[in-house]
Amino acid sequence: MVFISLRAGRYIHRFWGKCTLSLDSFCVFVYPVTCSSMMEIKVKDGSSLCTLVPDGEPHIMQSVSVSEDHRCSSISVKSTPEIEKKYVHRVYDAIAPHFSSTRFAKWPKVAAFLESLPTGSLILDAGCGNGKYLGLTPSCYFIGCDISAPLIKICADKGHEVLVADAVNLPYRTNFGDAAISIAMLHHLSTEDRRKKAIEELVRVVKKGGLVLITVWAVEQEDKSLLTKWTPLAEKYVEEWIGPGSPRVRGPSPFTLESIPETEENGSQAHAKDSNDSLTENMQQSMCLTPQNEDDVLVSKHRMSQQEYFVPWHLPYHRAEVSGASAGALANGLARKDDKKGAVVYDRYYHVFGEGELERLVSGMDNAVIVNKFYDKSNWCIILEKTL
Amino acid sequence: MRLLTHNMLSSNIKGVTNGFPLRIEVEKVVEKQVEINHDFLRNIFPKIDWKAFFDASRVMGYAELPEEAPEPLVLESDLEFLRKFHHALLELHLEEGALVCPETGRKFPVNKGIPNMLLHEDEV
């Protein structure tokens, strides 16, 4: 991971959240996909990593390439990374009622799994969202949890038994549940360690012999045009983006975005952001990939290996609170307006899963086995059984 | 929050050895009837930590449960016990109050029947 120390730059502070080490400078800890845990360094750990830049020129303080095995042990896997706070938690909190109104269709595969469980089962739903699956089988009892209080409120209003909790650290006794489900949740966790931990938690909280169903969005989307509406996030982002005035800036300006060409929709191949745009927006854009080649084949190949995305959510103006979350979100760059669509646009962070990835995550577990795995409607799914 | 949930909840604050059971602080209890499901009650009974359940029911203002857990066989035929078990497990709601970590004293708020078990950064 790379730590960048810069002289005061309010826009950076606002965009990334902060880790303030001294009055004169602060470190920007950017999201390193290669690191096994997120970087929200506490001050006491930071002193050895980030020092004042005497000459005022920005430069990289320390560049460490962290492999998946190397743990940033000072940061707990249970600590929520900034990218999830901004692009998962806050977004769902802001869009909860609208999101809930669009979440009603019950996925047959999930329904089938729930209906296959013995009557009288206690079923735990981690990341239950608007509670779509709670109570689906009347002979069973459901307890749901989600990190979003507004979504949980929606569940509670429907009479469900729910609580606000973190799926990476479930506040449940071990072995209590009969079964557990995690539907479209794991893909919002930004590191492999956190995704593994969430799976371990699901297995932990069910009894021996209990089943766990996990579904996640797949890289291999049935509707490929969807991918063009998503914003891919650069793995090597930090190495590409240095900052204003740096001699290492590669031309053209790093503050332009060349979008992956849209399909049929419009003929334009790319559009560059106006360099007069606010720095915040430019920074946000420069986080995204600059394609090397606009050739379709290369683009789609590139897309297949790309797993980190921002997926937009369009919150219609009439739904967005004018004086609430959306106004604030717009003010600090967390959301943008799309007047053409009449909506506030929020980005949601996703790590979409490749074929075999779920199996790989569980392969190291000594207390669970895979009893089923399948691909359905652009989702990878797995059913585990707790063995010990 | 129902007592079924309370019987499952445990404080997961860093450093805590045994975060169960959480102590209940009552501000408001509400009773809501729900249909009895004998299959469920018989399935759930062995999972219940009876002492924690009994103590919690008392705090919630319900005095009908036996202090000692009955033999599982009782659930096969004792409808009266099943009714009381059902009532305490699923029909008593802590609407407002708090759940207190037995080791640290940290309070997890319960508002509108919803416990918030999220930890602060320094508790993780």
From TrEMBL, chain A:
Region (Disordered), start-end ranges: 249-280
InterPro entries attached to this UniProt entry: AlkB_tRNA_MeTrf/Diox, Methyltransf_11, SAM-dependent_MTases_sf
SUPFAM superfamilies attached to this UniProt entry: S-adenosyl-L-methionine-dependent methyltransferases
Keywords tagged on the record: Methyltransferase, Transferase
Residue ranges annotated for the Methyltransferase type domain, each copy included: 124-214
Gene3D superfamilies in alphabetical order: Vaccinia Virus protein VP39 (3.40.50.150)
Top-level taxonomic group: Eukaryota
Keyword match Ion transport: no
Pfam families, alphabetized: Methyltransf_11
Entry's Gene Ontology BP terms: methylation; tRNA modification
GO molecular-function term, one example from the UniProt record: S-adenosylmethionine-dependent methyltransferase activity
PANTHER family per UniProt: ALKYLATED DNA REPAIR PROTEIN ALKB HOMOLOG 8 (PTHR13069:SF21)
Protein name: Alkylated DNA repair protein alkB homolog 8 isoform X1
Gene, per the UniProt record: LOC18592225
From TrEMBL, chain B:
GO molecular function, one term: protein heterodimerization activity
One Pfam family it belongs to: Trm112p
Assembly mode: Interacts with TRM9.
Family the entry assigns: Belongs to the TRM112 family.
Name of the protein in question: Multifunctional methyltransferase subunit TRM112-like protein At1g22270
Gene this protein is translated from: LOC18592156
